[in-house]
Fold NCAIR mutase (PurE)-related protein.
Amino acid sequence: MNTKELTNLLEKVKDNRISIEEAVGNLKQLPFSDLGFAKVDHHRELRQGYPEIIYCQGKTTEHVVGIVKSMLEKGSNILGTRATEEMYEAIKAFYPVVQYHPLAKTITIKQKEQEVPSSYIVVVTGGTSDIPVSEEAAITAEILGNKVERVYDVGVAGIHRLFANIDIIRGAQVVIAVAGMEGALGSVIGGLVEKPVIAVPTSVGYGANFGGLAPLLSMLNSCSSGTAVVNIDNGFGAGYMASMINHL
């Protein structure tokens, strides 16, 4: 339940369209549902504007299904990250319109329309190996109610490719720059645009990449002002933050 839905409920009580008892029944499960193995936070959308996100990695398929069913009852849009095809098939068995995005390893269910800003977010990658993390960012931003443009494989090894797409990058409200190897893409873009840049280091790279630690440190030490950094391979975190900025 979001602020608008809560306001509508209270207006129905005020106008005697529903009883106080009915309203209390609707509100009883508002804070969270205790499933035994999880406490699903239904109040989060009311507090923060976005519903709870399901981090599927480490959970059993049965637990993910239980959380999804609880959220479906509340009419929420649903995003599950780091999800498997087995989880998707289990949800599809009782809710056929669920979507699975194999590159991003995300599950999405859209139950209600959102107000989408006229501005857009652009997701830029250094190479094609960074696309899975980039897609996690892009799909996160889309399910949270944003228009997203994708500019992939424009890394610094062929920087002319980046300049060929600079207009669409500069036109965005916020830029997500996803790169592995040495992670220079975030700094380069940060020096070319006047909008916030969210840099995402990936674990793509050879030995001294140290599983993403090298680009993480490069991005943290960027001399381009206006560039912020999320954790290694955290496309979700970048997409969520970009959505918050785009909705300001």
Q: What stands out?
A: The chain has a mean pLDDT of 88.
